[in-house]
Each structure stands twice: as structure tokens, then as C-alpha cells.
Amino acid sequence: MTQSLLKVSDLKKAYGAIQAVGGVSFEVMPGEIFGVIGPNGSGKTTMFNSVLGQISPDAGSIELNGKNITGLSPLALSRQGVGRTFQTLQVFGKMTVRDNLIVAAQEHKGSMLSRMFAPGDSGLGGKADALIDQFRIRHVADKLAGTLSYGQQKLVDIAMAFMAEPDLVLLDEPCAGVNPSLVGGISSLLKELNQNPKFGRKSSFVVIEHNMDFVMDLCHRIMVMVEGRVLAIGTPAEIRGNKEVLDAYLGN
Question: Once rounded to an integer, what is the mean pLDDT over residues 125-138?
């Protein structure tokens, strides 16, 4: 039986009397695109940030490739093979697109001493160029990121998450604020990264997103959260046909 890439077991997080996450469990398999949906206040972001080391869960465990990563810092998780994007852009506006990608991966490139004597791009220029081509942003590679449209910056932001060749990328609302004309392009790009990987393996994602059409089209399986708990996990077709989900979320 294939070992799960990410395994979250009975995760809990409370703020005073409010149980933001109340015993959430799920698994993400290698090569899977796993979606997380739910109404505002359902605990999605708290769960996400607990997995990513932004906050410490009160209870439960998180495993990556069978290794317990519960409580590790975001930097330590990054070095364990977990990439992420945020709801708000994390690009460096006064740097070129290419330099943004290089900076995103420099901390993973050897020791501080080895980087001091490495080429100006720390030997990461070739990898950056490959992702620039894959993300179809060659025409803006030498422009300052801050001069790009929001949608173009979003693509740069996602590309930065792949520079360290992560095993798993967690995408927090990749379509938020993006022109609807670009949403399909982001979906196609993520499918391409999943099916035709540059690094010899399929890319795996966990995606939080409010755009239901995007999630239903992109994800292999979807988890629905309501009031800090898992209401359902299934394929898009199973989620569409789940009456509890329709009543609690999709129907609203």
C-alpha cells in the first residue's frame, strides 16, 4: 500500500472557548491534488497554518513521508520539502522576476560559506529559467516584480514556491483577486506541474480556495470543513452529490 505523503491525525486548536479546529484528520497521497473548502469560519486557515508551523496545534499529529513534523517551524518545514503560497503576495517588488525565484531558493543551496563562493545566482539561474519558461513568464523575467499585474505577480509567487523542489506545496487561495480570465490558466498550469513534473516526480498540492469551479475542476479529492470539523472527503463528483455538503455549504 502506498504511504501517504501528508498525514494529519486528530488535529485540534482552540482559542479560549472557541474550538477553531476540532479533531481534523486526513491524508494526501503522493501525486495528489487535494482541495479544502468550507464557509468562512470553518477552520480551514487555522488548520492550514497548523500544518505549516505558523501556529502550534493543541493536540494531534502531522506526518510528512512518515516523519513526524508536528510543531516544526516554517523554515524547518521548508527544508523538509514543504512549500507554500499565502493569500497575500510574497514577492519582492523591487527585484526582477528572475531574482525573486533565485532568492526563494537560496537558503536551500548549501551552507552560508558555500553560497559566499558560489556564482552570483548561487547556481540557481538554470532552475529559475526552467520555471520561468514553464510558468510562461519569460516576457517579464527581467522586469521588476512590482511593475507586473496582480495576476502575473500571483504566477511569480507560485513559481517561487517550486524553486526548492518541494515534495508538497500548500496553496492558500491561489485565485484570490485574480482576473477571471487567468483562473483557467492557473488551473492548467497546476495540472501540468502535477502530470508532467520537471523534477522527476508528480507535484502534490493541498489547495484552499473559495472558487468552487476551480476546485471541482482541479482537485482529485476534496475535504469539506464546517465549524472546525471534517464534514466530508471525496471526489468532486461525490462532494457534488453529498446532501450534507449541499445543505451546509454549497447550498449557501
Answer: 88
Q: How many CB atoms lie within 10 A of CB 76?
A: 12
Q: Which pLDDT score, from 0 to 100, does residue 166 have?
A: 87
Phi, psi of 181 (to 5 degrees): -70, -20
CA distance 169 to 171: 6
Ordered strands of the 168-172 beta sheet? 82-85, 168-172, 204-208, 33-37, 221-226, 229-234
Q: How far is C-alpha 183 from the geometric centre of its chain's CA atoms?
A: 16
DSSP state at residue 38: -
- In whole numbers, what is the pLDDT of the chain averaged over residues? 86
Residues 221-240 have pLDDT tens digits of: 999 999 999 999 999 999 99
* Backbone phi and psi for residue 20, each to the nearest 5 degrees, phi listed first: -70, -40
pLDDT for residue 220 is more than 50: yes
Crossing angle between the packed helical segments 125-134 and 97-106, to the nearest 10 degrees: 120
Q: How far is residue 252's CA from residue 245's CA, in Å, rounded to a whole number?
A: 10
Grid cell of 120 as nine digits: 552570483
Domains of the chain: 1-81+166-252 (3.40.50.300), 91-164 (no CATH)
The one-letter amino acid at 249: Y
